[in-house]
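thread: overnight batch results

M.L. [08:02]
morning all. the overnight job finished for the chain we discussed friday. pasting input first so we're all looking at the same thing
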Amino acid sequence: MADGTVNDAPMLSNQHAPKIPLALNRGREAASYLSYIITHYYDLPDYMVFIHGDRYQTHNDDPMFDTLPLVQKLDLDYVDLEGYVNLRCNWKHCPKPYIVPQPGHEDSIWEAHGEYAKAWEFIFPNETLPEKIAAPCCAQFAVNRRTIHRWPVAQYERIRAWMWSREGDLPSMKAGIILEYMWHILFGKPAYWCAPVKPCYCGAWNICDLDCDETKGWCKGRIWTPDPPPSMPSNWPVEGQDGKTWPIEGWEKHT
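M.L. [08:03]
and the structure it wrote out:
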């Protein structure tokens, strides 16, 4: 977890009694993820789930926005088959490319086209820069040990060193966005990875009876929020299911 525990090895990015503190917390969840991989590279478990710390979040691909079923119901055979599984099937930031890498591009505050190209050159110096980057958000995924071991530990150290070295000139948020749209490539998927949603739900969680619109990357009864999403009620799901302050279509299915 980004600010909780992963198996028995806490990687805490907050101030609550960290057992393995981060030397520098940058890139949102990225520093925690990379530090866990680096620290445990030679004794990783068979399967790992990298998730954020809060249980209920707007980007959780669950009709109740709950992390728990995403982990409890995850089909590890599917993780083993795929190597890497994004814990969001819904096409948030697909199919339109989210990043179009452009060396020398002057990025606005919400863009990362130029900075992504810089990062790619440093992290993958011998690889061709992709023309377009797309994948469902939001940096939560499952991966097996074999897939992580596609790269030597030095590669993960290199990525973390890049992130830390940019502390003075690259906002932490933007470093996190760059890595959010690099994890799937690092772990063996194409740069443009907007997979069909129905097979994704069926494979990842054995939810195979969904009514899906593959052209929009959305299935009835799964996650839906406006863009940008409204603020989640602080005591969700005890309150907020009135369809007014927290509009969720089909939230009652597959809970």
